Amino acid sequence: MKNCFPKTMNNMPDIRFSVIIPAWNAAQTIVRAIRSCAEQSYPPYEIIVVDDASADETEQLVTKAFPQVKYIKLDLNAGPAHARNTGWEKATGNFIAFQDADDVWHKDKLQIVAGVLSQNPGIRFLYHPYTLASMDFNVQAQAVKMERFPFQKLLWSNPIGTPCTILANDTALRFDEQMRYMEDYDLWLKAGYKYGIYRLNTALTQINRPILSAGGQSSNRRKMRSGEFRAYLKLAKRHPQYWLLIPLLLGFGAIKHVVKSFGPPRSNY
Questions:
Q1: What stretch of H or E contains 167?
Q2: Has residue 6 got a pLDDT over 60?
Q3: pLDDT at 5 over 50
Q4: CB atoms within 10 A of CB 14
Q5: I need a surface site. Which of 33, 166, 187, 261 has the fewest CB within 10 A?
């Protein structure tokens, strides 16, 4: 792993983060989530909140507390893929940083990522772990390291959380709005094949609840596996060399479904 914490932000190349936050009935958590982005030690270029037809006070809270935020209210609820794509179409930064309306970033997340990108200008796809623990800690320079994450490894397991992801603002990359489950994994496969994947070893996002916990969209394990299978098939259509792996991937996915159905939710940190 390579030590990548920036010693200084002076003479930083022009790295502009567009933060995209989809929100649906997020009045209880949205202010905390936005604040964790707005108060970064390396400020985001812009924050875009896409309200997916909320029926609560999300709009009033966002527009009152954060007048500088670009706020978009959708007339009809269309799901997170459409909401994120809507924000992406409006983004003018050269990197996209995804955040969820109920999660929190470490205060130095964008500073750390900007340092990585400035030292490694070829990186276009970067992620870090998430945690359930508080973000109230100082990051030690020697502790933050980067490594290449093998694309083949992503085929067997998806450790990438959406609010932990930084992507180049590439018009060829978008979430598949026809997928309500695993649309993020589908995009990671597409972006990972195109750009390669890099990983930081330090958790910089606190998620609100464990992945696959009851109440979240990811808690529907059967539909998650179905979405995963669809992502595999789409990958093989784009890159036919993966057709031979499809039976193995589908079989492994079925085994994961059985195992996770009886296992507890977990953090990846």
A1: strand 165-168
A2: no
A3: no
A4: 8
A5: 261
Radius of gyration over every alpha carbon of the chain, rounded to an integer in angstroms? 18
- Asked if 51 and 122 touch (Cβ cutoff 8 Å), the reply is no
Distance between CA atoms of residues 123 and 166, nearest Å: 10
CA angle 198/200/202 to nearest 5° reads: 165
Q: How many Cα neighbours within 13 Å face the side chain of 48?
A: 22
Q: Are 48 and 72 in contact (CB under 8 A)?
A: yes
> Which amino acid appears at position 209 of this protein?
R
What are the tens digits of pLDDT across the range 109-155? 999 999 999 999 999 999 999 999 888 888 876 688 999 999 999 99
DSSP code per residue over 41-80: SS--SEEEEEE-S-SSSHHHHHHHH-TTSEEEE-SS---H
Q: CB–CB of 123/200 below 8 Å?
A: no
Q: Rounded to whole angstroms, how far apart are CA atoms 118 and 124? A: 11
Vertex 178 angle, CA 188 and 193, to 5°: 20
pTM of the model: 0.88
CA distances from 120 to 107, 144, 158 (A): 22, 15, 24
The confidence score (pLDDT) of residue 140 equals 75
Torsion of Cα atoms, 99 then 205 then 141 then 5, to 10°: -20
Tell me how crowded residue 76 is: count the other CB atoms within 10 A of its CB: 7
Structure tokens at 156: 């067997």
Per-residue pLDDT at 1 exceeds 50 = no
184: amino acid identity, one letter: D
Q: Are 101 and 40 in contact (CB under 8 A)?
A: no
